[in-house]
Amino acid sequence: MSHVTPHWTQPSHPAIQQVLYATDTSFTTKSLSLINLPPFGLFAKLDFPPCTPAPSPTYATVQCGVDAHLNLNSDLLYINHSCDPSLLFDTTNLVVLAGPKGLKAGEELTFFYPSTEYSMAQPFDCFCGSAECKGRISGARDMGEEQLRGMFLNAHIRELLGMNGTRTRVEEEEDETARALRNVVEAANKALDSYLASKNGVAVKVEKKLNGVNGVKRALNGEYKNGGGITEVEAEGLRARGTTSRELSGEMGGDTVA
C-alpha cells in the first residue's frame, strides 16, 4: 500500500500540529501537538472547507453520521489511533477536543477510531501500548460493552449500537470522561456567572449558557445536533509510535469498502 499523497497545502495546521514522517520506506507517520490545552479544550474545527462530504467512506474519511462520512483534506489525516487517546473527534459537532487528561505540547495526537467508525473494512491489531489497549480494532460494531466502557462515542455510534433511549451497562456508572465533562460544564457556568456579575456590577442570574457548554451537555447525554459545535469564542469559556494506525488498517479509520 502506498503512502497518502496530500492534495492540500502542507502544513495545514502549522500552529497546532507537527507531522513526523519516517525516513525509511515503511510509510510511518505520527503527529505531535504544538500546544497545551486543558481537558476538553478546543484543538481544531472540522470546517467546510477544508472538509468535504464524502459520498462513500474512503481511506481519508471519518464517519459523522449513520450513513454520512467526510473527507478531512488536511494533516488531521495523520492522527493515529490509540485506546488511550489524547483527542476526542466529535464528528457530530464537527470539532476536535483535547481528551479528559488535557493535552501537552510534544504529546502524540491520537483518537479512538471506534468513537467515529462503526464498521471498518480492514481491521488491524492495535500497537498503542496502553494498559487499556483493546487489541483488535475493527470498529465499534465488533466491540463489547466492557471494551467501550468509559470511551467517548459519537451520537451515530451510540445510535447504531442501540444505546440511545435506554441505559446499558456501559452507562450504568458515570465514567471518568463523563465526570470530567460535567466538571467543565459546572466550572464554565460559574465562571460565566462571576464574569457577568463583575462586568455589570451586580449579581445576576445567567439564563443563557454558552453553546459550547450546551454541546458538552449533549455529549454527556448522547443528544447531538449537527451545527451545535463549539466556536473559538465558546471554547474560551471551557479553557481556564510506530506505524500509523491508518496505514495499518489501510484506511483513515473509516469503514472503507475494499
Automatic annotation (TrEMBL):
- Which region ranges are annotated with the description Disordered? 239-258
* Keyword terms, alphabetized: Methyltransferase, Transferase
The GO biological-process annotations, alphabetized, read as: methylation
Molecular functions per Gene Ontology:
methyltransferase activity
Enumerate the spans annotated as Post-SET domain.
122-138
Give the matching InterPro entries: Flavunoidine_N-MTase (IPR053201), Post-SET_dom (IPR003616), SET_dom_sf (IPR046341)
Superkingdom:
Eukaryota
What PANTHER family does its record include?
Answer: HISTONE-LYSINE N-METHYLTRANSFERASE-RELATED, SET DOMAIN-CONTAINING PROTEIN
What this protein is called in its record is Post-SET domain-containing protein
Source species of the chain: Cercophora samala
